[in-house]
Amino acid sequence: MGPLDIKRVMAALPHRYPMLLVDRVEELVIDQRITAIKAVSMNEEFFQGHFPGRPIMPGVLQVEALAQAAGVLAVESLGLAGSGKLVYFMSIDGVKFRKPVEPGVLLKLEVEFVQKRSRVCKFAGKATLNGEVATECEFTAMIADPPSE
Q1: Distant-in-sequence, close-in-space partners of 130: CB < 8 Å, separation ≥ 6
Q2: In Å, how far are 3, 4, 99, 141 from 35, measured between CA atoms?
Q3: What is the mean pLDDT of the chain?
Q4: Number of domains present in the structure of the chain
Q5: Mind listing the pLDDT tens digit for each residue in 58-115?
Q6: Which of 10, 1, 130 is nearest to 71 (CA)?
Q7: What is the share, in percent, of the chain residues with pLDDT greater than 70?
Q8: Strand runs (DSSP E) across the chain, as ranges?
Q9: CATH code, domain with 27
Q10: CA distance 99 to 68
Q11: Where is the active site (predicted)?
Q12: How far apart, in whole angstroms, are the C-alpha atoms of residue 33 and residue 26?
């Protein structure tokens, strides 16, 4: 599957500003992998306090961006778009932060399925800057029904 614009990303994910951390999808191979982009801008609210004079994207948000890319992969692969189903973190393993992510970069998010079941999926992901790994981890997510009102 080719590129997905922000409208298609927003159709797959429930996240909205300021927590939507995937700006576009460059490539999505159903049941296999996704390559997405997060444009890191100085306008991000977290840069006001992390850190004044030395803005760095928090590591937890880098992992969240990878998880959101995985969410798009899972929703598209499992045919869940428009179903209201949510993709929740269950575990995060082996996280390594190798390079600081500063404003003004395009953070490339690469995630692949390690294991896929109907309700639980395992992923391996890495975030890169110009081909250099900034963050890498493995994580597990659960597909859940939307909250009842």
Answers
A1: none
A2: 9, 10, 19, 18
A3: 94
A4: 1
A5: 999 999 999 999 999 999 999 988 888 888 999 999 999 999 999 999 999 999 999 9
A6: 10
A7: 100
A8: 24-29, 33-40, 86-97, 105-116, 120-129, 132-144
A9: 3.10.129.10
A10: 20
A11: 50
A12: 11
15 counts as catalytic: no
Cα–Cα distance between 75 and 55 in angstroms, integer?
33
Residues in the chain, total: 149
Token reading at 7: 């409208």
Q: Does the residue 22 lie in any domain?
A: yes
Alpha helices in the chain, H assignment, sequence order: 6-12, 59-77
Q: What tokens appear for 99 in the block?
A: 């390079």
Mean pLDDT value of segment 9-33? 95
Task: Classify residue 1: in a domain, yes or no.
Answer: no
pLDDT at 141 over 90: yes
- The type of residue at 89 is F
> Whole-angstrom Cα distance, residue 15 to residue 72?
11
Active-site pick, 8, 15, 24, 50: 50
Q: Does this model's pTM top 0.85?
A: yes
Residue 149 domain-assigned (yes or no): no
> What is the domain range of residue 26?
6-144
